[in-house]
Write a sequence for this structure.
């Protein structure tokens, strides 16, 4: 490589000047508004070169302070090494990194791997096969995915599809504890990445289309003992609502609304599962998370607001008692789960500092909410939608378009967004350098027909029949930057296929994301210019991360393996095959002992190969 190439230096300088100009313009705009850029608390303050949890920090920013890879050199990214786990289902997990080891969790059968980053090619240190029950395969709504684990006190803790949470010793790969969280035969599964604060690990269930009773629970990280559990529907005691529960809006105030907003006896099959992301504010000692759609998905069978489904909860992390709640989509008629991530940040709002959470809901509205009391400060569409005429900020209620309300056995055409939303579970990221939030979103609509459904434990309690297709413009996906204070889109990139991956923002003023047809991209965080793209072997629906290797080099990693909700466009020309490969990138593809003549092969343990029989842990 010739670093003295004058044309290259000129281009690099030009890119730097453009980036600087964009940054100055952004800062000038903030000053003109009389407000500083939004900020976030990046606790627990893990080493910047490590990635110990799916969201990287409690605020769910997915922001990295690493900047060795930046707008000036990202075009030089090349593959450093790869790893295939051989599991041909949706790969939605974030790789985790601590010290000289990377930890991976696969879709069912939920094998975990430890890879040695200090050796050429990152060989396997150990692998662990938990052998979850195959019964869970038939109970999983939307592919047998897993969104990863969390590293806590020398353990990798993650969920199994058959409704167990397991802890594995980081050094030996041996099981430390396993806790049964529910009954898979009744339709309960678990796909979320656990969330840890201190010695507490928070987990929730999946199965909103199976008539489950949704819940969140806290476990002791050392023993796996359940500390508390809060249901999403039911009596105030079951939902853990007490005298300190103070929702901002009057229509959510009252006794036992988790029962009284449902037809008699229906709340225990009312879903409200907790299958995605949790955030935590250490100053308020409060966790924030969302609940899924109500069950059944046919709204005519469950008149009422159906509290507390499609809702964001704020709870005391120690006791689980609810502090406030806000229902995004009362009496949800379109399957608009409220489970998407809540990014915690501090902003200047109308001249005053406010602690807020920013949430891109499946209903296609972006919410900026005061996280101390649940007041909606702003709610504006971020994707094409026609189900609502807006959100009334005085009441917090959506103004529903009567023409978009389904009726049993009547086809309702062109409902936007569809059941998978203007954005699904794929997590957004936030950069304090720009004050912007970055998200992969959808441009999809559906024809909807409801069919009345009876409840039979362990079988689909659904009733929705959907035909999904691209919305106006014919593109399925989009990647955007959003201003959470102005409540508007700053820039966006149209994508032919769904943008179904998580996002990663870095101090190098880069944002990374992937597409369902397998493109992995790096974008200038300030102006949205695509600076680098690489075509992977399968679609990208995982969560990209960045880390520093033992060689002090910055890497970017992402799984390629399409599946999950992205399969709704599987019949489109150009849709890729399934896959199971982790790609790790570095500048010029350099890594530990890379270069000509490398012949070393070394590993401590064999893989726990599920295709050779579910053997015991080595």
């Amino acid at each position: 490589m010739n670093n003295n190439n004058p044309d290259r230096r000129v281009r690099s300088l030009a890119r730097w000047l453009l980036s600087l100009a964009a940054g100055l313009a952004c800062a000038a705009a903030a000053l003109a508004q009389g407000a500083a850029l939004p900020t976030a608390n990046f606790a627990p303050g893990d080493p910047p070169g490590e990635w110990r949890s799916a969201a990287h920090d409690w605020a769910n920013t997915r922001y990295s302070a690493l900047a060795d890879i930046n707008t000036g050199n990202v075009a030089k990214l090349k593959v450093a090494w790869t790893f295939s786990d051989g599991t041909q289902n949706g790969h939605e997990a974030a790789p985790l990194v601590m010290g000289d080891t990377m930890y991976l969790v696969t879709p069912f059968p939920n094998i975990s791997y430890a890879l040695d980053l200090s050796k050429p090619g990152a060989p396997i240190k150990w692998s662990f096969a938990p052998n979850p029950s195959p019964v869970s395969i038939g109970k999983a709504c939307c592919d047998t995915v897993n969104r990863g684990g969390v590293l806590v006190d020398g353990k990798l803790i993650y969920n199994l599809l058959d409704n167990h949470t397991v802890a594995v010793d980081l050094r030996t790969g041996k099981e430390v504890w396993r806790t049964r969280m529910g009954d898979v035969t009744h339709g309960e599964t678990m796909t979320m990445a656990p969330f840890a604060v201190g010695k507490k690990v928070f987990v929730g269930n999946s199965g909103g289309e199976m008539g489950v009773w949704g819940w969140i629970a806290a476990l002791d990280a050392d023993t796996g003992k359940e500390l508390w559990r809060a249901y999403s529907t039911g009596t105030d005691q079951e939902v853990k609502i007490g005298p300190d529960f103070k929702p901002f809006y009057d229509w959510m105030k009252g006794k036992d609304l988790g029962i009284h907003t449902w037809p008699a006896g229906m709340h225990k099959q009312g879903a409200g599962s907790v299958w995605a992301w949790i955030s935590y504010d250490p100053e308020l000692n409060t966790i924030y998370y969302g609940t899924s759609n109500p069950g059944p998905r046919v709204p005519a069978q469950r008149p009422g607001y159906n509290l507390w489904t499609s809702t964001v909860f704020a709870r005391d992390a120690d006791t689980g008692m609810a502090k406030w709640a806000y229902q995004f989509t009362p009496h949800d008629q379109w399957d608009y789960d409220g489970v998407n991530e809540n990014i915690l940040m501090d902003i200047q709002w109308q001249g005053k500092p406010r602690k807020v959470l920013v949430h891109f809901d499946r209903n296609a509205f972006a919410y900026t909410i005061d996280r101390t009391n649940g007041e909606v400060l702003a709610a504006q569409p971020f994707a094409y939608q026609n189900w609502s005429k807006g959100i009334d900020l005085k009441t917090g209620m959506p103004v529903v378009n009567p023409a978009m309300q389904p009726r049993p056995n009547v086809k309702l055409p062109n409902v936007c967004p569809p059941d998978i939303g203007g954005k699904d579970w794929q997590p957004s990221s936030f950069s304090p350098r720009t004050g912007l939030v970055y998200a992969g979103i959808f441009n999809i609509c559906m024809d909807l027909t409801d069919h009345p459904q009876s409840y039979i434990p362990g079988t689909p309690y659904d009733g929705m029949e959907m035909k999904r297709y691209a919305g106006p413009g014919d593109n399925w996906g989009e990647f955007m930057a959003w201003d959470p204070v102005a409540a508007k889109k700053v820039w966006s990139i149209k994508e032919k296929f769904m943008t179904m991956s998580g996002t990663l923002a870095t101090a190098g003023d880069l944002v990374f994301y992937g597409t369902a047809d397998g493109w992995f991209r790096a974008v200038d965080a300030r102006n949205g210019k695509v600076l680098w793209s690489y075509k992977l072997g399968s679609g990208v629906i995982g969560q990209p991360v960045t880390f520093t290797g033992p060689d002090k080099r910055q890497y970017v990693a992402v799984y390629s393996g399409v599946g999950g909700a992205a399969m709704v466009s599987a019949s489109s020309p150009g849709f890729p095959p399934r896959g199971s490969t982790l790609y790790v990138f570095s500048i010029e593809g350099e890594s530990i002992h890379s270069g000509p003549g490398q012949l070393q092969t070394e590993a401590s343990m064999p893989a726990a190969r599920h295709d050779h029989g579910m053997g015991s842990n080595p």
Summary: The longest strand covers residues 352-360. The helical segments are 6-32, 236-239, 257-260.
